[in-house]
Design brief:
0% strand, 78% helix, 16 helices, 301 residues, single chain, globular
Length: 301
């Protein structure tokens, strides 16, 4: 059967195909952390341009990076059961269409951030896009089983970007938010990697369970979860947050740690995906707790 040409692809492409290029669930979580970073950067409500234009620019950049990732990984995606139905390997879009869409999003992001926010936010946002879309996808992902640890810096950037959109400078508390996501990324992604290890092996991607085995990966999921539990206490210990955040973080950490211990001690097949799914809710609720704790004194006063 002949392959569809570019014209037939363009005719068949729908807005859902382009939307899927942006990895909307991943971008939504990134935007949530960016919005929280924006709101935490000031005691009261931030300026409207920083809140709206800043987070729109950050969201468009994240979507652009996701689309570039689709383009660069299209051959790998075609070899993996989890990703073979994405728009590029399935033939719904041509890679030139996806690349053009990604460039459009990226340019729009930079224009918005430079024109309506500040140059520092634009520069840091562009740097995070390059780290994820190029350094991680092209090099780290294929070079080392520590790919997700090193490349996690890009995924941890959104709350810092949101904070800088308001203040126009880096702040220690913003870096705490970065550290939380940076520590969260390995147990989050390695849980998925355990469940999908055969896919990664088929695609020759050196994920940790492929190169070092499942038992080794389970141990490191547990170790990074312990690190995460410690790191998430730092906002309270530094005075950034209060008892509302602390109580919620302790409960979330207890659940996350229980799952990590169960994963280490049990070979049950459902545990890796169970932990992966919880990790997404964990990060969402943790950042919402930071936000609720931040505005609680205002509600009381």
């Amino acid at each position: 059967m002949s392959q569809p040409n570019a014209r037939s692809l363009a005719a068949a492409a729908t807005w859902r195909d382009y939307l899927e290029l942006t990895k909307p669930r991943v971008v939504a979580l990134s935007v949530l952390t960016a919005v929280v970073g924006t709101l935490l950067a000031t005691p009261h409500l931030p300026p409207l341009d920083a809140l709206l234009a800043g987070n729109l620019g950050i969201a468009l950049s994240a979507a652009s990076a996701a689309a570039i990732n689709h383009v660069l990984d299209r051959r790998i995606d075609a070899r993996m059961a989890r990703t073979r139905n994405r728009p590029l390997p399935s033939g719904h879009l041509a890679h030139t269409q996806a690349l053009g869409f990604a460039l459009l999003l990226g340019v729009a992001s930079m224009v918005i951030l430079v024109a309506f926010v500040n140059v520092l936010t634009a520069a840091l946002t562009f740097a995070s896009l390059i780290v994820y879309a190029v350094v991680y996808t092209v090099w780290l992902k294929r070079a080392t089983p520590q790919n997700i640890v090193i490349g996690g810096a890009a995924g941890a950037a959104p709350p810092v970007l949101g904070w800088v959109a308001v203040t126009n400078h880096l702040d220690a508390h913003a870096l705490l938010l970065f550290l939380i996501i940076f520590a969260w990324t390995p147990p989050h992604f390695w849980a998925l990697a355990i469940a999908r290890r055969h896919d990664y092996a088929r695609a020759d991607i050196p994920m940790l369970p492929v190169t070092h085995g499942v038992e080794f990966t389970r141990l490191h999921v547990l170790l990074y979860t312990v690190i995460l539990c410690i790191v998430t206490l730092l906002p309270y210990m530094t005075g950034m947050s209060g008892l509302l955040y602390l109580g919620g973080a302790v409960l979330l950490n207890a659940r996350f740690l229980w799952l990590a211990i169960a994963l280490k001690l049990s070979g049950r097949d459902e545990l890796p995906m169970r932990m992966f799914r919880f990790s997404i809710s964990y990060l969402m609720w943790l950042f919402l707790l930071l936000l609720a704790d931040h505005y609680l004194p205002l509600l009381r006063g």
